[in-house]
Design a protein that fits this description.
Elements: H1 4-14, H2 19-38, H3 43-47, H4 53-62, H5 77-87, H6 92-115, H7 120-123, H8 125-136, H9 141-151, H10 165-186, H11 194-202, H12 232-239, E1 251-257, H13 272-275, H14 279-288, H15 299-302, H16 305-311, E2 314-319, E3 330-335, E4 341-345, H17 358-367, H18 372-376, H19 381-391
Parallel strand pairs: 1-2
Antiparallel strand pairs: 1-3, 3-4
Helix pairs in contact: 1-6, 1-9, 2-4, 2-6, 2-17, 2-19, 4-5, 4-10, 5-6, 5-8, 5-10, 6-8, 8-9, 8-10, 9-10, 12-14, 14-16
Family: Belongs to the PrpD family.
Domain MmgE/PrpD C-terminal: 225-373
Protein name: 2-methylcitrate dehydratase PrpD
Amino acid sequence: MASIAEALANWAADLEPGPDDLALAQRSLLDTAAVALAARGDPLAGIAAGLPDAARWAAVGHVLDFDDLHVDSTTHISVVTVPAVLAVGGDARAYLAGAGVMARLGTALGWSHYSAGWHATCTAGAPAAAVAAGTAWGLPAERLATAMALAVPAAGGVQNAFGTHGKSLQVGFAAQAGVRAAQLARAGATADPAALDAWLELVGGSGELDLSGPAVPGGLAIKVYPCCYAMQRPIAALREVRHQVRGPVRAVRVRTPEATVKPLIHDRPTTGLEGKFSLPYAVATALLDDYPDFAAFTDEAVRRTEAQALLRQVRLEHTPGADGLLTGEVDIEVEHDGPTLHVRLAQPPGAPSRPPTDAELGEKFAACGADVPDLLADADWASVRDLLRRTFPRAT
């Protein structure tokens, strides 16, 4: 019986992308590049300047937490695989091979893996980046399986890093680990593909794979707000009623399945990064800000007196459902000087079932920088690679 690494490697080597797959790859390339360009002024751009290309570009592409997400696997697929592909001169097919492996490996790891505190973007990301880079170099299935096994020692990352630079840096480490593993496999290094099976069991994965369907099963969710995906739904729900709020808010009750708020580990955030992983701050920015954009997630915005006061009015109640960030629905009540407001929402804007329009994507790209839409007009993999090299040169 083939190992999991061999099964995934054979799938990746045989991949023949269809038009829908290629359209997803192009959108992922542009979305990842736009979000990275938005981080040009972020302190992490300087901190990570000495890292290799894949690590550097993945770190800056994730620090704003505005990059896409594969909901079923709870992984940020593109911010790992796009930089890995760009770093080695790959194209859309290499991206889709890595993205498809990451989606399936992350799904096999399962919700129990994520809920235990692992950062699945990193654990599933390192082997997937190995496939992405190896595919770009034309490695056969046997070598791709070896590359995945060689990436196992670096397949780590934990949720305790959320709200710090550690989160985006460990994503960068995963991308670079995959490139390094593919380089070693390309050079002839040996490894037992069954190492991936053993690792999967050790970290609580099921080992069940579904190799059918499109390259990225279920598609990708595009973020509308620059914060953790677990905050997208409550923010979107509250924005539907925020203009009806009269006077001071006395209480906000949020009912949602426990799984949907698992990454939101900061109840009393005091920095912008912590605010990106805070349910109470999701409530605060949704009610206080006309649009929760980058300015809403600065240290100053999170420390606003009115925001800190609102944090203390939020009460969370868990409802049944425990297997993903979009399980069930969010149900929110707001007590204020008027009648109690009540809103429910199942699928936020940008979810796979509510894909963004071209106009919405254009608005997002413009929010990432006034020049970003022009920089990405007619962009392909080679031009984006050159753009990132100019924008984020490696420090010597």
